[in-house]
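Narrative progress, year one. The postdoctoral researcher (J.K.) led the effort to move from monomer predictions toward full complexes, under supervision of the PI. The following entry was the first complex the group processed end to end, covering 867 residues in total.
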Amino acid sequence: MSEVLLELVGLTKAYPGVVANKDVSFRIGRGEIHALLGENGAGKSTLVKTIYGLVKPDSGTMDLNGAGFAPAEPKAARAAGVAMVFQHFSLFDALTVAENIALGMEQPPKMQALAARVRAVSDQYGLPLDPDRTVGDLSAGERQRVEIIRCLLQDPKLLIMDEPTSVLTPQEVTILFETLRKLRSEGTSILYISHKLEEIRALCDAATILRLGEVVGSCDPRATSARDMAEMMVGEVLHVPEKAEKPLGEMVLELTGLSAPAPHQFGTALKEISIAVRAGEVLGIGGVAGNGQDELVAALSGEMKLPAGMVKLRGADVGQQPVNARRAMGLQAAPEERMGHAAAPDMTLTENALMTGTTRKHLDNKGFINWGKARDFAGEVIKAFDVRTPGAENMARSLSGGNLQKFVIGREILQDPDVFVVNQPTWGVDASAAAAIRQALLDLAAKGAAVVCISQDLDELMEISDRFCALNEGRLSEPRAAKGLSVEEIGLMLGGAHDLEAAHEDG
Amino acid sequence: MIAFEKRPQPSQAWVYAAPLLAVVLTMIVGGALFAALGKNPFEVIRTIFYDPLFSQNAWFYRPEILIKGGPLVLLAIGLSFGFRAGIWNIGAEGQYIIGAICGAAVGLALYPAETRLIFPLMVLAGALGGWAWAMIPAVLRVRFGTNEILVSLMLVYVAEQLLASMALGALRNPEGMGFPGSRNLSQWPAAANKELWQGTGFHWGVMAAMAGVIFAYILLTKRLFGFQVRLSGQAPRAARFAGVNPGRMILLCMGMSGALAGLAGLFEVTGPSGQISIDFNVGYGFTAIIVAFLGRLHPVGILLAGGLMALTYVGGGIAQGQLSLPAAAIQLLQGMLLFFLLAVDVLTNYRLRFGQGEIA
């Protein structure tokens, strides 16, 4: 590992108003898994885009294998042996795996030969994948394998992976890590971008930490605690959310056999969801996105109406009630997508406060808006949740993801909900904002509200939940106490263990 | 290389400057067009934009501006709510025609009675007629998901056929010696849309347009409904999350623009036009779309834009008469106005950057 594969020297890239990378230098050794750590906006994306030839640096140089390396476009980077797996896949749902791979090649071989090669590579690296299957039928993890195999067919010297585990179940993560370790043993270097510190500790040999575009440190992740790395990333001492022990209150939210057809072509049907949540409790719902999370939030928020008897709030049937009637009764929600769903990007924060605050905060008088009151409420949210913005008259779109999320969560929490349903509360949010949001959810529960937290981030759910259950293809598993739940058990819940067991019994 | 760069906040200055720049650009390109037609561009521009207001004969033209501007503003105010909410009623022309037919029919049914109630009754019938015509695309959209743009536009042609059949059949003047067209309503005191002040052109329709502007301003800036309209247009999912029922929004916005279009038609048929005739409609319903956008879908803006558009109608008429400019050249000028506005509008949300471009 002493041999250097890629050396970056003094890379600087400025955009109007922001320096994305400032004098970034580090080395990646041959056969090394090198982690690139940093919060959102730390400059990780710009840096890897530079290496992959998508961005031209203002100054600085790169050396690959001791020779100058300045790819003008991704094609040149690929030719030099650099491959990249993006966070968002670029696959055609209607085509097969092999056809998708052929599309990305400059001179694709005959389809049969290609399928054979795909099979060979997938066997070699332990990535089970059938080249003849249609991509539309594949899980997120399998789609990622298509992207990885597409890269491996180029025989890369350096493989860049951007947040690869964000869509995977724990079992799929294990398979992926096995593959990456195998690649390392064959001398391939991997630049691994993530903010999941435990993964980095388990997998990587070296780590470079970026903050505000600059390298602020490097470490051996195997010998550094996750907390120390997080503090290097954030540049301040992190507060781990504190959970107060408290007795649970009465039953507030009851779902009984909640079923609903998919609201649109690419939606997921909800199937027979039954669960009850008590006052003061945090229920964590895990699962890979696209398994009915959006639909469940819509069913609870009131955006989707349900037949009688499926949703009860303090014993009252609310399935037919519209959104604002449910708010009036104390059921509040915060959907996953901030821009355009939880908030309107081209409206001011005052107007965004008005969006959901009208009913409970009485921001109108017989249909006439009280703008002064709305402004005060927005200011209250900004202050209480430390939203970084010059003022309530700024557009929502001018806020960073984390700040807007704090605003959205704060807007609902300051209305004192009895039940708060939140989907992906810290997705794309930097570590310190995420910690603040989790603390706010715990505080809300401590005050006696029932909190339903839907998330893909298992660490987050384990940190704040009292009970945990998994959403899989629109079905909710039996809830279990979160304390003492092992990663394997969670993985089985997420993967829809019932199906697996049934298959074994048949065989 | 020139590149566009998204502004973090829409520029307030450009919100106001864009329409002005669009007018200036229209004058420049329009002037070039007139020059290519062999006219003196300065003379044409002066005739269109200056003469109707300030020339020696302006006393004759000024009332005309109100007469043309009234229906345009009324129509555009109605359209602006739907446009803000992302509901595209392109068929205001048809609703305008049906409003005129319904209002006139109610009046003519009572001919030759003389009571003060007839005109208000006709106004009501006109609004209802326009509303009902607009409900067709609205209900089809809500129930079956049809495209309201196509349905409302197609209904314009249906309305035109209906208009012709009415002018030739049911509503034809029995004392009209067989000529097509209804009785002249403006000459029947009980049904006439009179000028409120003699010789000013300020008739009930202009009054209604003024009231519409004020009403729309309050609705848009002070009422929760106005906020929901804006939210529905900017972020439909967010609107649903805020408790807006999209179907209800469609029915309300389409209904409102239909009713106002019907009113505009009624005031026209009882006033400046006077009778239901085959070619009663002159395209106000389509021009109002330009007025709505030129006025930034804002009530005060629409008032100003309606005035400007009326000016090009009146001034264009003078230019046709005095300078023998083809009518198509005037329509081109009006179209250019919208074209340039939409183009310049980009600058509200983006700034121009000169220098090296790149892929980021």
